[in-house]
Amino acid sequence: MAHAVNTRTKGNRGPVTGTATGQRKRKPFLLDLYSTSVGKKYVMAVTGIVMIGFVVVHMVGNLKMYLGAGDFNHYAEFLRELLVPILPRTVALWLFRGGLLASVLLHIHAAYGLTRVNHNARSVKYQSERDYQVANFASRTMRWTGIIITLFVLWHLADLTWGTLNAVGTNGTFVRGDVYNNVDRSLSRVPVAILYIVANIALGIHLFHGVWSLFQSLGWNNPRFNKWRRQLATGIATIVVVGNVSFPVAVLAGIVGN
Ligand code: HEM
């Protein structure tokens, strides 16, 4: 890889990859960039920002459950009616879903690619001594918290969007559109409430390191901003975890639900 000989003369811009030589057919620029570690890190950072935006907005939207069934169900309907009549009902929602799904898949694909690059390059030392400890801790936990979040989201969709797991272990049934009672039914099951709490703590850890590292990935890593970066990472992670953990606790405490 790094020992490939660059046969190009000075002044001629070569492909982004260090592996490329004159004999290789050149890929489109974005694919060529994505085949490098820097490109993958960019993709992780940008898709990470999209997903951070989603989890923050999703948590804030879910706070509506504290206003009661009417307001919460109305909010869920509002999401389906977004941009009507410019677009037909649910089209804007499906566009968001498409963007979100693309971000999730790209984020996981780039993460997998970077893990493979790291495994193949054990002899290369981490470049920035200053961030070594943070990066080291992040790389040890990010994969596992990422896997927990992915499994949680699959459960969560089956629970509250598709409804297949929503009523398991209860006497009720999932009712599409009655989001308030679906949440109440689901989180009244203690093991499910615990699952939500554990998954959201994993999400908080992932978010903390993700927000911290995305500045590094985008090249905004001036040490002068480290304090600010840490505060932002702590702030976003804390807001999301406190908000999201409050929902199962509120249901179990009888503050939300019937
Ligand atoms: C206790 C915390 C949470 C609660 C109470 C909650 C609640 C809900 C509800 C009620 C829905 C269905 C909305 C509807 O049908 O209109 C939903 C959908 C969804 N949630 Fe959550 N959620 C929580 C945490 C999370 C987290 C942490 C993530 C991601 C990491 C997440 C990702 C999603 C996704 C992707 C959907 C599908 C959205 C769609 O396609 O319409 N949720 N959530």
Quick summary:
By secondary structure, this protein is mainly alpha-helical.
Please provide a written account of the structure.
The structure is a single chain. The chain is mainly alpha-helical and about 260 residues long. The chain has helices at about 30-35, 35-60, 70-80, 90-120, 130-160, 180-185, 190-215, 225-255. It has one domain (about 40-120, about 135-255): 3 helical TM bundles of succinate and fumarate reductases. The chain has 8 helices and no strands. Helix 2 packs across helix 7 (about 190-215), helix 2 (about 35-60) runs parallel beside helix 8 and helix 7 packs antiparallel against helix 8. The radius of gyration is 22 Å and the shape is globular. The chain binds protoporphyrin IX containing FE. Protoporphyrin IX containing FE binds near residues 149 and 247.
**CATH architecture grouping:** Up-down Bundle
Structural class: mainly alpha
CATH class: Mainly Alpha
Element-by-element helix/strand order: HHHHHHHH
Low-pLDDT residue spans: 1-10
Small ligands present: protoporphyrin IX containing FE
Biggest sheet overview: none
**Estimated helix fraction:** 55-70%
Q: CATH homologous superfamily? A: Fumarate reductase/succinate dehydrogenase, transmembrane subunit
Looking at the structure, the CATH topology is 3 helical TM bundles of succinate and fumarate reductases
- Shape call: globular
What is the arithmetic mean of pLDDT? 88
* Gyration radius from CA atoms, angstroms: 22 Å
Number of domains as seen in the coordinates? 1
What separation lies between the terminal Cα atoms? 62 Å
What is the count of β-strands? Answer: 0
